[in-house]
Amino acid sequence: WTKPPNRTRPWLKKVPLPRPACSSRLNNWFKLFRFLGSPAQARAESGFITSAYPYTKDIMNFLSNLRIGTRLGAAFAVVLALVLAFGLFAISSMNGLNRISSEIETNWLPSASITSAINTQNSDYRIMELRHVLAQDAGSMSNLEKLMATLKGDIESQRAAYVKLISSPEEKTLYEGFSAEWERYMVEHQKLLALSRENRTEEAMALLNGESQKLFDSASATLLKLVDLNATGASDASHHGNELFSQSRTVIIGVLVAVLALGSLFAWLIARSIVRPLNDAVRVADHIAAGDLTQS
Q1: What angle, rounded to 10 degrees, do the helices at 138-163 and 109-134 form?
Q2: Dist CA 33 CA 38 (whole Å)
Q3: What pLDDT score was predicted for residue 138?
Q4: R_g over Cα of the chain
Q5: Which of 142, 171, 180, 241 has CA atoms 20 to 30 A from the CA of 232?
């Protein structure tokens, strides 16, 4: 039995795969790290800097000539600068969140609360007007008028507090519309009380269900628009705060990762730059101790 001759099978011929465009760049990075970890003599003889990175030869020579203390100081300065930038960004983000929180607490929520309270008080005022028209004796009418006067004072106090919280042209326009409707409503209110005191109930009811009702409904609708406006503003501010928190968290995580990566890289480079020369010195000393005086 003899071994059959080799037969060529061209269809099994290996075809080299095309290298990706970034492979040469990655190879240069790998060569750079291998170069940094090699002994000083090998680095000097390799010619890697001039071949792969011709523009960094002067920089590498400059770094190699730095003292260890200078290298450590520069590395720590870079890390501390990143930490400082991280701290300033964190403080800025916290201030932004605090501003949004304060805006919700001191503007949007109080505005929505006050407009809701005014709307409720207006409804109570309207009910007292109806009770005044239906009252038959002067004592009941007098008591109701005192209650309406007190309630009107509360409404005016709420309005004065709300004016200080207006924060947009749209809100100002709506409030001015409500104020005009309220003033017109109060004119009809005085006419209503005059008819009610004279026990002209039918005429008072006609006024109550006519122009007075239209003005009341219009004023209430404007107040509801103000409530919705402030509720929407609070919701938008809350969403903005959530977005700011999410963005800040992403940036902070990225900065932390960058600080850890750079700190680790600097520690490794400095350690290698210190350990390699020491290893070379120990190797030369061992050879000299063994009688080999050719080492340098």
Answers
A1: 160
A2: 9
A3: 87
A4: 42
A5: 180
Q: Is the pLDDT of residue 292 over 90?
A: no
| pLDDT (tens digit per residue) in 59-86 | 555 656 667 677 778 777 877 887 888 7
Would the pLDDT of 15 be above 50? no
Letter string b/e over residues 69-105, b meaning 16 or more CB atoms within 10 A of that residue's CB = eebeeebeeebeebeeebeeeeeebeebbeebeebbe
Structure token digits, residue 223: 């107040």
Determine the angle formed by the axes of helices 201-209 and 109-134, rounding to 10 degrees: 150
Q: What is the 3-state secondary structure (H, E, C) of the chain?
A: CCCCCCCCCHHHCCCCCCCCCCHHHHHHHHHHHHHHCCCHHHHHHHCHHHHHCHHHHHHHHHHHCCCHHHHHHHHHHHHHHHHHHHHHHHHHHHHHHHHHHHHHHHHHHHHHHHHHHHHHHHHHHHHHHHHHHHCCCHHHHHHHHHHHHHHHHHHHHHHHHHHCCCCCHHHHHHHHHHHHHHHHHHHHHHHHHHHHHCCCHHHHHHHHHCHHHHHHHHHHHHHHHHHHHHHHHHHHHHHHHHHHHHHHHHHHHHHHHHHHHHHHHHHHHHHHHHHHHHHHHHHHHHHHHCCCCCCC
**Residue 27: what pLDDT?**
55
pTM of the model: 0.59
- To the nearest whole percent, how much of the chain has pLDDT over 70? 72
Report d(CA 195, CA 203) in Å as an integer: 7
Question: Looking at this protein, which amino acid is placed at residue 63?
Answer: L
Both tokens of 218, joined, read 């219009």
CA distances from 88 to 81, 258, 276 (A): 11, 16, 38
**Cβ partners under 8 Å of residue 196, min gap 6:** 132, 133, 135, 141, 204
